[in-house]
Amino acid sequence: MTEQTEATTAVPPMPTAPPLVPEPTPVPETAAPKKDRRVLRSVLRWTAAVVVFAAVGAGTAYGITGMERTDVPGLATASDGRWDYPTLTLPPLPSGSPGPFAETNKAGAHYADLRALVLPAPKGATEDKKLRGADGWLVTKDFLAVYAEKDDRTELAQKFVDAGLRHVAARGWTTPDGTHTRVYLLQFGTAAVVDEMFSADIAPYSSPGYTLRGAGASVFDEDFPEAARLEKIPHSAYVETKPYGAEQVRQAYLSAGDVLALVVQSRKGGAAAVPFQQTVTLQSQLLD
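The structure assignment produced for this chain is given below.
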């Protein structure tokens, strides 16, 4: 997430949702480091939310809390397209386990249940239960089906084997406006493996490394707000250019420790930018 030195009263119309809520565990009354305060101000500026991280030891849930849309200057009028997500709560870490970006966690491992880290569907959406898989795990071949070319699916299947893919968790839904959303989390052995795959193969700057089914030519999304990026979780967002087919496709890859995430949204006539940006950012926060 980009550091911000001051929070402003003019909040850009970027997507917000009910933020992550910490468990009511007592927090030591010590002053937060300056760097943490700057990070929190950055989230406030973009999401119009007050962010509070509770770091209270192993096994404790942590999250963020925020204001209602009508409490935020400039956002008390008509909706700007953001979806109404339910309150997000991170699962507790197993006792003695560090967070994915703790200094002691050299592998960048997510020790919380990966299935609990997938963004839930917003209110009013119809969930695609097939993406939940068996016991919440999606088999690799079903994930690979998102790619259009057979050679790409074969190549990626081997890369995943070589990289030690452990699990795939997914969720999908359709909102009343016809937008189809799919979120996939792929967990590997270490962050180094994910970083290499993200930067070298799957998510280069100019365009996606592999073409998704239903997507034509896609380019890097230059309009994705810089303030929406999380410092520890790089992402590459792409948008399908005109002329596109029956639906326009937006996609983003996230590199989050030992997890590689893919967020896909498509809609007939054009996929809106705001809910896509909102979904990518909230999923990033869940993996942070």
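Interim note for the steering committee: The first strand starts at residue 126 and ends at 127. The mean pLDDT is 80.
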